[in-house]
Amino acid sequence: MVNKEVEDNIVCPSVINENQKCTTPDPGNVADFETAIAQTKFGTFNLILLLVAIPSVFASQFETASLSYAFPAAQCDLNLSLEDRGLVNAIIYTGMISSCFIWGSLVDVFGRRRILIITHLIDSVFVIMAAFAPNLSVLLVAKFFGGFVINGPSMALTPYLSEFHGTQYRSRVPLTLGLLYSVGNIFLPLLAWALLPLNININVFEGFELHAWNIFLLICTLPALTSGLFFLIIPESPKYLMSKGNNENALEIFQQIFKLNTRQDPEQYPVKKLKDDKQIYQQKYTLKEAWIQISPLFSLRYANKLLLVCLLEFFLMMGYCYMTLLTHVLHF
Prior knowledge:
With 332 residues, this protein is mostly helical. Helix content is 66%, strand content 3%.
């Protein structure tokens, strides 16, 4: 039986919340993920992550809404009718819908960081393609695949950022991302307001000129491009590495985060070994396995709830996107 006086003197220096057990490493310095991430504290590294998230969020916003602001200036160059403009706006979301289930699976199979790098860089290519589009057909192809690809960062960013935070701060990550999306909605029209009225005529080669709307779309490439480059220098989520059984690399990442956040030597990081948290992730992810995960959503048991959620989301997004997507119609 533990002596009462000794028991009262035991102090847990890293309690996450009142409902969670003490997260101090055990005497053998072996810890699970939650304990290990709590010991890295909150500091410089977490702030860097949030700064890197800004262009990533802006990339998603710009992909879906930038053309609505460019249409009034671009419609003459591309000979776009009102129906054509509506089709281009719709094709973006068609691409997003067609990939909505794919990226969630790929993020778990290939890792958050890899998906963030690849999708941002590929998206920047399609944004550039849209900026130089000579006709409607090229524009439709660029925006469809842009919408298809941009779902990747949207799926990967939230879990990626959340897995670098302990439970004390993790719930604030989605709130911060929501704030950044709102900032993006303010920044994009300001950028359009500053650039699109300009009289720009740059002769690139015979028969092709760059105008203000081309420059505007090229600038909209920067968030995706910079995000892809930024994520090259930021490590993979340690939780993902642990789920793959790569505890050694995960521990090194924890130590580097600890060093940045506390300004202490990595050797002073109290966790010396991570518990085996390997989960069953198959490298060859088949459509059958993906359907096994998704199929319960479409069972009769959840039909009413699924319908209600879908209707709520539909009307929410309709109200959210209505004015932005119809900006070109309000142009006089």
